[in-house]
Amino acid sequence: MAPASAASDPYARHVLARMADFVTDEGTPWARRLWDIGSVLALEELWEAGYWQAHGVLAATACDWQRHELGALIGPDRGLGDRELRRELTQLLSNPLPDPSPARRRLKEIIGHVRSGYLERWAAAISGPVEQRAKPERFARSVASHLLDLGYSASHLQAWARDLYDARATTSDIADSAAELARTPAGPYEVLVALERVPRRELAEPLEHFCEKGKVIAWLREHGHDTAGFRAGGGFLYQFTALDAFSAAEQARRLLERMTARSQFLRRDRGGVVPLPHIWVAGHPQPIALDPPARGADVLTLTNEGHLYEVAGVRSRIDDALELAAAVNRGPLAPAVAGAWAAVESLLSHPDDPRPENERSGKAVAADRMAAIIACSWPRAELTALAHRHKPRDADQLAKDIASCTMNQERTRLVAAALRERGAGALDFTGAPTKWTDQPAAQRMADLVRNPRTVLADVSRAFRIALRRLYRTRNIILHGGATQGVALDASLRTAAPLVGAGLDRIVHAAYAEGLDPLDLAARAEVALNIVDGETALSVVDLLEPV
Questions:
Q1: Region of residue 298 (left: phi > 0; alpha: psi -120 to 50; beta: else)
Q2: Contact criterion met (CB below 8 Å) for 500 and 489
Q3: Cis peptide before 100 (omega within 30 of 0)
Q4: Dihedral sign, CA of 468, 472, 473, 475?
Q5: For the chain, what is the domain count?
Q6: Coil, strand or helix: which one is 194?
Q7: What is the pLDDT of residues 225-275, one digit of tens each?
Q8: Do 491 and 469 touch, CB atoms closer than 8 A?
Q9: Are residues 161 and 271 located together in one domain of the fold?
Q10: Which range of residues forms the domain containing residue 92?
Q11: The whole model's pTM is what?
Q12: CB 382 within 8 A of CB 445
């Protein structure tokens, strides 16, 4: 019998829909984005943490917490094997891994074995009967995070996932294609960056990468780019090793950030190094925008409730936090990480917080509080989207009831009730343009409304891990003076949308109720403990006042 195509393979459709969510640079709401890094990178991050602990940058309690959480998280990861690898990892993660130590040296060795064949083991794990496979959400997250962690750009993976969907790829096709990507070595890329003008030209001309304007234009024409109206004072032609053209452009973008940063220290022509708005990669048909895609930190309350221009009057702590976090979307890594964490810490820490010798010691408690706020806002965000997307070709009673509502809270209650009674099949997206993105979301929400405490605990844990990683990253950058750590990029990629979501709820509570961020966090922590209990607190109302 011929293998089923994706058109008749719900598992494959689910996986591709979620992969599309995970690798879409802009446009995917925070509630559907990738919140975690892959297991291989998480193990590498743990190994590196031992170095920073030995140098006083990370506390022993922080590293122990990281190790314990990782030990629990890798359990469902089928790419880590079923026998020897998993047994060795479990044993290593059950004890501290100080630097230096025999256990840490063993961890480095086992990471090499884990990395080799990781996606092949996943391919084998999902090749059997559907009822024996891992959940499609787990498979999609594991594959997408691993490929991003390897260095593939989101833009490249988005095109890859779209091609698989158009080709009606089966589950096996997806797994095999992902494993092939992981085996593909990085290749050489030639990348051109051009400057509007070149201040202190005598310092640029001797450099081997510098190109005069004529050579820049000649290179663009040679590679099929339009030069009509092109204006530049010169440029730099770099050679990079990368997995795709967008990743090569990102390497060029970072060199430009360093160059423009240095120009701020000139006495004359201060800040005069101004690049043109595009980067060109040999072999890539279109110029790539110099401005990277935003990292997804959206504070929608500022526009949805009309607060964008309300900046006059007394300056609040929230005003300060929004300014601190402004770099998180498109700023260079170090200012983005530092500003994002400063915003979280300033709003959600207090002098009466637990001190050292406690697992939640120091400022990490701010990450836990932000995670609770975000976890409580997740159901409402997803249920609101589903309420708007429920569009059967012939309107049913649920669609009519939703249409008659005047508030999102009413709509989400209707959707939650329908999911509790009839499961994900209660929603019909045949008239919506993104039905396959919404189908997995409907299943997640059906699981949530039927088992809210367990699901919310898992989601809150994922948020807590991502935000504590941001805190560690901030410490490595500011106290270790390093911007080249193994998980620094991934930390910002996963945490930025969550920081935006948390700030959004904090801003809303401040404007709507005059509620202090710490009081909102307390409300969220209590709600997670009592949801669906004797108080009948619904997942729709977790952040609502009593």
A1: beta
A2: no
A3: yes
A4: positive
A5: 2
A6: strand
A7: 999 989 999 999 999 999 999 999 999 999 999 999 999 999 989 999 999
A8: yes
A9: no
A10: 1-184
A11: 0.94
A12: yes
